[in-house]
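Tokens in:
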């Protein structure tokens, strides 16, 4: 079975008040695959800054496989990323390959163990790299810079405390560069997550129930300042929309979505 709806110009992709009527959400039973295309729209001039294709496959053990092909036109960066997530939606494995300015910029396979993360790959010069990074707690997310991977840092957020800004320990980046142009690296993220609440969100599939998160970055005064709003299908890492505030001023909007093989539920 394939369920696919595309709105002209990618739809509006915005939220409405909590409690608004929603349509039937896509199934996430084992065996379900969800495929989506995301457009990056620079709001001041409505310029298309890039596109991203993402596939989710929900597994029998309650986890999910994610495959991402992300193309940024400004700056020119291509990211190919895959994740294996466990039933908590925490990463077990992550593979990243980056092309920047139309040149290979590095690759890395990250394997998460109990006390360490191992990474093998190649640096931007094509030389083999093998590293091990000690960890003192569970790895809750690996952010590799495609916008759909930004959702993953929110998976460990405390939904019982809406409005509270708290740094998520156990969140890591594959590159310290803001656009992920240098891998394989390993850096703990300083992002703080705020769970805003559950809202009705307009998508090409109609109105669906979404978890709304706000990502915050450290500010000059020692606190945090808002950077990116994110919406995902409630209780899952399935991307529905995002808005990065100034200076990026970019809305990440679903152009289309397909639900393949509706699962075994």
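Residues out:
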């Amino acid at each position: 079975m394939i369920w696919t709806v595309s709105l002209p110009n990618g739809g509006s992709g915005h939220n409405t008040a909590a409690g608004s009527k929603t349509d039937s959400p896509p199934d996430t039973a084992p065996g379900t695959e969800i495929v989506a295309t995301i457009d990056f729209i620079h709001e001041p001039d409505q310029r298309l800054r890039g596109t991203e294709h993402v596939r989710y496959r929900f597994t029998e053990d309650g986890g999910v496989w994610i495959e991402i092909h992300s193309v940024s036109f400004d700056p020119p960066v291509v990211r190919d990323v895959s994740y294996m997530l466990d039933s908590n939606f925490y990463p077990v494995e992550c593979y990243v390959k980056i092309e920047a300015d139309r040149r290979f910029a590095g690759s890395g396979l990250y394997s998460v163990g109990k006390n360490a993360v191992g990474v093998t790959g190649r640096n931007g010069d094509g030389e083999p790299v093998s590293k091990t990074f000690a960890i003192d707690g569970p790895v809750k997310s690996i952010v590799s810079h495609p916008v759909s991977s930004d959702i993953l840092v929110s998976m460990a957020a405390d939904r019982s405390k809406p409005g509270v800004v708290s740094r998520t320990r156990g969140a890591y980046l594959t590159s310290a560069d803001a656009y992920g142009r240098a891998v394989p690296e390993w850096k703990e993220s300083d992002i703080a997550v705020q769970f805003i609440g559950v809202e009705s969100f307009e998508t090409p599939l109609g109105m669906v129930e979404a978890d709304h998160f706000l990502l915050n970055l450290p500010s000059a005064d020692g606190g945090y300042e808002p950077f990116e709003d994110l919406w995902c299908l409630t209780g899952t890492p399935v991307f529905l929309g995002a808005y990065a505030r100034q200076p990026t001023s970019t809305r990440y909007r679903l152009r289309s979505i397909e639900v393949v093989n509706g699962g075994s539920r």
